[in-house]
Automatic annotation (TrEMBL):
Top-level taxon in the UniProt lineage: Eukaryota
Source organism: Guyanagaster necrorhizus
Cell compartments where the protein resides: Mitochondrion matrix
Stored Pfam families: Acyl-CoA_dh_1 (PF00441), Acyl-CoA_dh_M (PF02770), Acyl-CoA_dh_N (PF02771)
Chief localisation class: mitochondrion
Residues covered by the Acyl-CoA dehydrogenase/oxidase C-terminal domain: 245-380
Coiled-coil region(s): none
A GO MF label: flavin adenine dinucleotide binding
Gene Ontology BP, a term: fatty acid beta-oxidation using acyl-CoA dehydrogenase
Name of protein: Acyl-CoA dehydrogenase domain-containing protein
Keywords for this protein: FAD, Flavoprotein, Mitochondrion, Oxidoreductase, Transit peptide
Length: 407
């Protein structure tokens, strides 16, 4: 028989290319873990990977990712690594093994800002923004969600009006990752001239553009979130992403982000398993290690089984994506399954820590809280409901029955 490795029970590594294995190993971000603990010690909502200023995002995070080639990794040229889709997933998994907030920051930069510029932008826009975004020199945000329109972006109220020399944008966006520190904003607006949704590139400092941080988040604290207000922001024609048209354009960005999240959450659950397994081996009750109790073993085995199946499913979607043979429903399936399973099993293995589940130094509680948001963003985080899970259920339900149940 082959040797059984509990960390990779079905030998997923065997299905990766040598380059992908090298990328995965290069991007094991062990050195960042100390910083994350500091982030969670702080009694505020903002990123803390240093002690310099407890209320400000640490600008070192994205440049560090840029140096490692983590940002926009699948893009060819413009200083990007040009990796496979599977490598992009592996990167998300390694980052989220550290913290979902870091993965979120990276996902937004890569899938929601660099991707639309690359897909829908002009050569000049690509030259201007992508190399700096790849290095993490500038930070991007993606504004789709509005105060009155989250699940139904089709009804957004933000508008673009054509004027001589360009456009005027009016409206507001909320729950936008990276917004409080962003230099570049991909803003989706309904164009008054044909009622189609298109993307526009806005820059920090433009007259009429304001952002505000959303404070006191109870999870995903290592990522900044905020609102964007646009009061007659004047843009020149070159701010339009000319190849964007219709809701399919922002959704194509979400396909990429959701695919990455399906890998990322498996990394977070893997970290929960590593930590609780170690704890169960060391901690004794009834003169025996916790790991010797059948109920404790079952928790670990169930969680590891879900990680393995989830990774295999995402790997298959990644390969199909590389071959141009994927559908958004496939992404909905792995996003829905992996986020749901990661949340469920992180909470179950959290039990193994007993009272220490409450102590931030054990990290599993932080992951479990973050994983709630990975299920819910693109959903109603405050009510702790599984919107993304719900929405992806309905996307798959429509594919199976042909009946649209959203509205
Ligand atoms: P519907 O009529 O189904 O579709 C409208 C048009 O869009 C096309 N389309 C897609 N195209 C590409 N990829 C997809 N996944 C697509 N889904 C739909 C569709 O073919 C159609 O095209 P056309 O040419 O016929 O007009 O749209 P709907 O209004 O009924 O909405 C359906 C629904 C509910 C599934 C959709 O609106 C939805 O997914 N809502 C959730 C909103 C959402 O996910 N927001 C995310 C904001 S970004 C974010 O949260 C980032 S979190 C940070 C991080 O990633 O870490
Ligand atoms: P609502 O749409 O009001 O939904 C509320 C509840 O109603 C949910 O439980 C949902 O399940 C249910 N519901 C709604 N419609 C249906 C239906 N048809 N059938 C069944 N149930 C339904 N957005 C961005 O654009 N960019 C970002 O970078 C970004 N980052 C985020 C980061 C964080 C930390 C969070 C929490 C959110 C972020 N979002 C971002 C916003 C997110 O995408 C929205 O919260 C999401 O689209 C849902 O919108 P909503 O919060 O308005 O919830």
């Amino acid at each position: 028989f082959a040797k059984f490795h509990w960390e990779d029970p079905l030998n997923v590594e065997n299905l990766l290319t040598e380059e992908e294995i090298a990328i995965r190993k290069t991007f094991c971000l062990a050195s960042w873990k100390d910083g994350v603990q500091k982030a969670c010690d702080d009694d505020n909502t903002c990123v803390r990977v240093s002690n310099v200023n407890p209320i400000e995002f640490d600008p070192k995070v994205l440049p560090e990712m840029g140096k490692l080639g983590l940002l926009g990794s699948t893009i060819q040229g413009y200083g990007c690594a040009g990796t496979s889709q599977v490598a992009y997933g592996l990167i998300a998994r390694e980052i989220e093994r550290v913290d979902s907030g870091y993965r979120s920051t990276a996902s937004v930069q890569s899938s929601l800002v660099m991707h639309p510029i690359n897909e829908f932008g002009t050569d000049a826009q690509k030259e201007k923004y992508i190399p700096r975004l790849a290095k993490g020199e500038i930070i991007g945000a993606f504004g789709l969600t509005e105060p009155n329109h989250g699940s139904d972006p089709a009804n957004m109220e933000t508008t673009a009006e054509e004027i001589e020399g360009g456009f005027i944008i009016n409206g507001s966006k909320t729950w936008i990752s990276n917004a409080p520190v962003a230099d570049v904003f991909i803003i989706w607006a309904t164009c008054k001239w044909d009622q189609k949704i298109r993307g526009f590139i806005l820059e920090k400092g433009m007259k009429g553009l304001e952002t505000q941080a959303i404070k006191n988040k109870v999870a995903l604290r290592a990522s900044l979130t905020g609102s964007i207000f646009m009061d007659s922001v004047r843009l020149t024609h070159d701010a339009l992403l000319p190849k964007s048209k219709g809701l399919g354009s922002p959704f194509s960005c979400l396909n990429s982000a959701r695919y990455g999240i399906s890998w990322g959450v498996m990394g977070a659950l893997e970290d929960c398993i590593d930590r609780t397994r170690e704890y169960a081996l060391e901690r004794h009750q009834f003169q025996r290690p916790l790991a010797s109790f059948q109920l404790v073993q079952k928790k670990l085995v169930d969680a590891q089984t879900e990680v393995t199946l989830g990774l295999l499913a995402s790997l298959q979607v990644g390969r199909l994506k590389e071959a141009g043979q994927y559908s958004p429903e496939m992404i909905s399936m792995v996003k829905r399954n992996n986020c749901g399973k990661a949340l469920q099993h992180s909470r179950i293995v959290l039990d193994i820590l007993g009272g220490n589940a409450c102590a931030d130094e054990y990290h599993v509680g932080r992951h479990a809280a973050n994983l709630q948001v990975t299920n819910t963003y693109e959903g109603n985080f405050c009510h702790f409901l599984l919107l993304n899970y719900d929405i992806h259920t309905l996307i798959l339900g429509k594919a199976m029955t042909g009946i649209q149940a959203f509205a």
